[in-house]
Amino acid sequence: LLAIATGCKDSNANEARADDSAASASTVAGGNHVDGKNFTIDAAPAGECKAASECKVAIKLKAAGDYHINKEYPYKFKAEGAGVEFLGSDAAGKNTFSKSAGDFVIIDEKGGTMTIKFKPAAKGMSTIKGTFKMSVCSAQNCQLETQDISVDVPVK
User: Fold this and answer.
1) For residue 117, what is the enclosing H or E element?
2) Which long-range contacts (CB under 8 A, 24 or more apart) does 11-17 make?
3) Using CA atoms, how far apart are residues 117 and 30, in angstroms rounded to an integer?
4) Contact 61/111 with Cβ under 8 angstroms?
5) Contact (CB, 8 A) for 17 and 28
């Protein structure tokens, strides 16, 4: 399973290891920003959100320095939020969004976006939060991370 998770394409792939470093997360207005070790995450509402309609949050992952997106990793976001219906199509349930379900799209070697779809029941503020499982790699190792994400979405 580690070989699948690491996805590094170099002679040191068998020596890939999970990096245990903890990234600091801080919520910013309208979204969430994480400065991690060798990556950044920016999460924000994707467009206007109306009650009883499909809304989206985009979680953008960007690898830093010599690191790149791990193309083999099964990216996943497990969502939670009060007063919303999640619209995921992953086999694990409607509140699970994943690469295998088409929710995570690799943009280029350095970046990818996870799209969270949901339907809020009422106007006001909806908070979409959850755990993002992700990975970035260098030629020497792959870093496996779990990040808590929280995004406030204004609902009209």
Assistant:
1) strand 111-120
2) 12/139, 12/140, 12/141, 15/140, 15/141, 16/137, 16/141, 16/142, 17/141, 17/142
3) 17
4) yes
5) no
Q: From the first residue on, what is the mean pLDDT of each consecutive set of 10 residues in the chain (156 residues)? A: 38 34 35 89 96 97 98 97 96 98 98 98 96 97 95 96
pLDDT at 23: 34
Q: d(Cα 90, Cα 15) in Å, to the nearest integer?
A: 31
Pairing of strands 111-120, 55-63: antiparallel
Dihedral Cα 82, 87, 93, 98, nearest 10 deg:
-110
Does the reported pTM lie above 0.85?
Answer: no
pLDDT for 6: 38
Token couple for 137: 């790699």
pLDDT at 42: 96
Q: What's the token pair of residue 149?
A: 């994400």
Q: How far apart are CA 87 and CA 96, in angstroms?
A: 9
Compute φ and ψ for 6, nearest 5 degrees: -80, -45
65-84: per-residue pLDDT in tens? Answer: 999 999 999 999 999 999 99
Contact 44, 113 (CB under 8 A): no
